[in-house]
Amino acid sequence: MRILKLVIWDLDETILTGILEEGDEEITPLASTLIQQLDQQGVLQTLATQNAPEIIPPALKKFGWTNLFVQVEVDFGPKVSKVRRILDTLGVSVLDTAFVDEDPFERASIAAQIAGITAWSLAELAAYLDGVSCPITDEAQRRPQMYREQQARRRDEETAGDYTEFLRSCNIQITIRPYISDDAMRAEELLTRTHRMNLGVLPVDEAIARLNQPDEHHVVVAEMKDIYGDLGRCGIIHLTPDQDGGAVVESLAISCRTRARGLSLAMLIGLLSHPDSRFQTYRCRYIFNGANRPLRMLLLGAGFKPQSNPNELALTVNQLAALELPDWVHLDYVSLK
What is the CATH number of the domain that holds 195? Predict the structure, then answer.
């Protein structure tokens, strides 16, 4: 199933029925409906428009959209440059991105210049949304706000004189706890939406079904927050004990937002180290899905070693214990027992 994480909107004669600079401020009814649907589903929305920069903020305020678009790119230059800046800034894969414009020439132009991006009309976006059912988790509803918080982090990071001191000042807290039934929708979202940091061994439906078998499996969840905001549940690992005191990693997914903070390794160590789920060895099978090479690099960074089959990796509890976390990460383990 296709995952839609980001929509890049055109403004004139797409969201609006006419041209803003010519005084047309009437919103296309279908565009208004789709914007609301995307907002409810936590899909990031941005704007790429060829307009005078000074006329956009007052218009967005008038429409009640001051906080709707997580990034606005406006100038009279080529539209493709604005689309590329949005993709570069947000770090969302083009495969999870749709550019929406009612002009077929603009759609064809963007599709020709940015390989892998989807270019849709309003009707095509509506058809897609009618055909999918997405879980609406707390994280999904707050996703645009979390990206705005991430942009604030990035601005402060760029102006910080000492990066390590900046990280210490962020008061980064990672809570590691056992999975509970209330995590089901978020677990499905992580396993479905995360491409770069997803083990990809089990089909999602099978992975979800196994989560609710606590007698046979250990499932651990990681939550994260800092002074900029609460990022919610950002990681999940599913371990099945074997007969030799070890465990097989059945599923593993870590939100790509953790990579921007250099926290993926800390989160993986935390997930593997929960006191209720400690084993002598950890084994996993890694299947490349076209995008998840960063996860293999993360596993190797955590001490997992390739076995006779290069797609099989293993880690001992002693290797795990030898790993040191930076002093700017605070791990808190919570037990439900």
Answer: 3.40.630.30
pLDDT for 134? 65
* 28, pLDDT greater than 80: yes
Residues 239 and 177 occupy one common structural domain: yes
What strand order describes the sheet that includes 97-100? 71-75, 44-50, 6-9, 97-100, 118-120
* The Cα angle at residue 53 between residues 47 and 56, in degrees rounded to 5: 55
How many folded domains does the chain comprise?
2
The pLDDT tens digits for 194-228 are: 777 888 788 878 888 887 776 678 889 999 998 88
* Any domain includes 177: yes
This prediction has a pTM of 0.68
How far out from the chain centre does Cα 76 lie? 31
Q: Helix (H, G, I), strand (E, B), or coil: what is residue 33?
A: helix
Residue 27: inside a domain? yes
Residue 159 vs residue 39, higher pLDDT: 39
Lowest-pLDDT range of 11-15, 119-123, 300-304: 300-304
| Same domain, yes or no: 171 and 47 | no
Q: CB of 224 within 8 A of CB of 173?
A: yes
Number of Cβ within a 10 Å radius of residue 180: 11
Nearest residue to 254 via CA among 278, 216, 226, 224? 224
Length of the chain: 337
- The range of the structural domain enclosing residue 264 comes to 163-333
CA distance 166 to 157: 7
Higher pLDDT, 290 or 322: 322
